[in-house]
């Protein structure tokens, strides 16, 4: 029994006095703290997912993302196929010609789009997303179709059944009567039910069609101009598909944090200014990998859409998630500071005290998330960081019994959190800044640790 107590006493003394034991203990506690840190990351993802759900709900009620595809000329024509028929009574075989109707879809020669978009922020509880009211005018012309490309005889064209069709997402967001002026007449566009295919995360396009065009409005013997205006409520982004042989787009908006996306970018300089943005595109037929005519059905061309995303300037959940990725480094560096102080000053710090310090560091991230939901990221970071620094500095004063050490701890934490904040704000220079900072920290630790006698186990 006495021998067992002596062994326990030796082991406890080794834990208290051995540098190796302290290193193992600190390393073990860091690994343990990765568990609550992973819970924090899950919390960030859960809150971010909740925000996305709210944004989708707002978009569903207000109006979804807008994609415009068209207008397109739909020209029916007769096709013929041979069918072999067996007469039952005589068993003789003969060939029967069956007439069917196919469709040729012709894109316009010129398509000019002018869009004025007025976005605003919509709130739902503590969450917000961008929505907008837009007024978009489309004009251009159709040239006389070239049927030789598709080997269609002009005598088979059903000119009396020609229509205008166009596709668009967010049909429910249209707030005016959709009309198109073709030649000298104006036609109402009405919905045509088409079973839309699902193209992953891209919105489905609904089809609008005009009544049969009057003969004089059909580009049969001469080019025909068209024009229309659409007032649409939408959310998040607006885009167009360049169906014109020459497509020009001019879009203006007071929104200053626009993000241009898609296969084509604006060509004008100074598109973003202090009053919003003024973006202009010009796409030629040769710039895109599809032709001016298609047979029987319009293809999926959403891949070639381009436009503007009216993004919210700051996504605090993304910044919080990026900050949490440095949690392991923050805990490790803080424990390293306490370890060096303990080793050099021979002040005893209990594992429980290390654990309390580690939990305070983890609490920083929960404070950051909860405060940033009601304020901006900078204020949340400042409040959460200051709270944790004051808590740990005050706690270290009671542990280390030295104002100098406590002040050193406070300055170290200020430096660490400032360093992390700078990295979070940077994008292009985050890697080089982080690498340089860690190199400097390593050099300082190497310089301080040279005074430690690593050969002795009774420090």
Relevant terms:
single chain; elongated; 8-stranded mixed sheet; 459 residues; alpha+beta; 17 strands
Write the layout of secondary structure elements.
Layout: H1 2-17, H2 19-62, E1 66-86, E2 93-106, E3 110-124, E4 127-142, E5 163-168, E6 179-182, E7 185-188, E8 190-192, E9 206-209, E10 224-235, E11 237-240, E12 246-253, E13 259-262, E14 272-273, E15 276-284, E16 293-295, E17 306-309, H3 316-324, H4 327-345, H5 351-372, H6 377-400, H7 403-425, H8 430-449
Parallel strand pairs: 1-11, 3-12
Antiparallel strand pairs: 1-2, 1-5, 2-16, 3-4, 4-10, 5-9, 6-7, 6-10, 8-9, 11-17, 12-15, 13-17, 14-15
Pfam family, one: CreD
Transmembrane segments: 21-40, 326-345, 352-371, 377-397, 404-424, 430-449
Protein name: Inner membrane protein
Written account of the structure:
There is one protein chain. The protein is of the alpha+beta class and 459 residues long. It folds into 2 domains: 10-51 and 317-449, no CATH class; 64-312, no CATH class. The protein contains 8 helices and 17 strands. It has helices at 2-17, 19-62, 316-324, 327-345, 351-372, 377-400, 403-425, 430-449; strands spanning 66-86, 93-106, 110-124, 127-142, 163-168, 179-182, 185-188, 190-192, 206-209, 224-235, 237-240, 246-253, 259-262, 272-273, 276-284, 293-295, 306-309. The strands form 2 sheets. Strands 1, 2, 5, 8, 9, 11, 13, 16 and 17 form a 9-stranded mixed β-sheet that branches. Helix 1 (2-17) packs across helix 2 (19-62), helix 2 packs parallel to helix 5 and helix 7 runs antiparallel to helix 8. The relative contact order is 0.13.
């Amino acid at each position: 029994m006495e021998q067992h107590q002596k062994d326990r006493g030796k082991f406890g003394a080794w834990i208290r006095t051995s540098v190796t034991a302290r290193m193992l203990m600190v390393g073990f506690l860091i690994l343990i703290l990765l568990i609550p840190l992973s819970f924090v990351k899950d919390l960030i993802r859960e809150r971010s997912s909740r925000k996305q759900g709210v944004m989708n709900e707002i978009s569903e009620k207000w109006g979804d993302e807008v994609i415009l595809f068209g207008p397109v000329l739909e020209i029916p024509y007769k096709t013929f196929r041979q069918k072999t028929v067996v007469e039952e009574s005589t068993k003789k075989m003969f060939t029967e010609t069956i007439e069917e109707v196919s469709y040729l879809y012709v894109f316009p020669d010129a398509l000019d789009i002018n869009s004025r978009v007025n976005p605003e922020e919509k709130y739902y509880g503590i969450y917000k997303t961008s929505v907008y009211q837009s007024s978009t005018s489309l004009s251009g012309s159709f040239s006389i179709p070239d049927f030789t490309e598709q080997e269609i005889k002009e005598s088979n064209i059903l000119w009396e059944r020609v229509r205008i069709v166009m596709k668009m997402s967010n049909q429910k967001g249209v707030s005016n009567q959709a009309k198109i002026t073709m030649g000298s007449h104006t036609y109402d566009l009405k919905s045509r039910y088409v079973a839309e295919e699902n193209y992953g995360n891209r919105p489905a396009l609904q089809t609008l069609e005009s009544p049969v065009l009057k003969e004089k409005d059909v580009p049969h013997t001469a080019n025909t101009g068209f024009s229309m205006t659409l007032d649409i409520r939408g959310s998040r982004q607006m885009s167009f598909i360049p169906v014109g042989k020459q497509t020009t787009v001019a879009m203006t908006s007071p929104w200053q944090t626009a993000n241009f996306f898609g296969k084509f970018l604006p060509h004008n300089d100074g598109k973003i200014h202090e009053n919003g943005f003024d973006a202009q595109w010009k796409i030629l037929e040769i710039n895109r990998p599809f032709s001016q005519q298609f047979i029987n059905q319009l293809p999926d061309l959403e891949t070639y859409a381009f436009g503007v995303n009216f993004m919210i300037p700051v996504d605090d959940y993304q910044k919080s998630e990026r900050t949490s990725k440095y949690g392991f480094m923050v805990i490790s560096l803080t424990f390293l500071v306490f370890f060096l102080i303990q080793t050099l000053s021979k002040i005893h710090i209990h594992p429980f005290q290390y654990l309390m310090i580690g939990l305070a560091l983890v609490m920083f991230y929960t404070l950051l998330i909860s405060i940033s939901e009601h304020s901006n990221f900078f204020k949340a970071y400042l409040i959460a960081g200051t709270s944790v620094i004051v808590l740990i500095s005050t706690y270290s004063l009671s542990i280390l019994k030295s104002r100098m050490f406590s002040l050193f701890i406070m300055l170290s934490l200020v430096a660490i959190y400032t360093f992390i904040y700078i990295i979070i704000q940077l994008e292009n220079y985050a890697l080089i800044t982080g690498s340089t900072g860690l190199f400097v920290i390593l050099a300082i630790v190497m310089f301080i640790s040279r005074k430690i006698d690593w050969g002795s186990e009774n420090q």
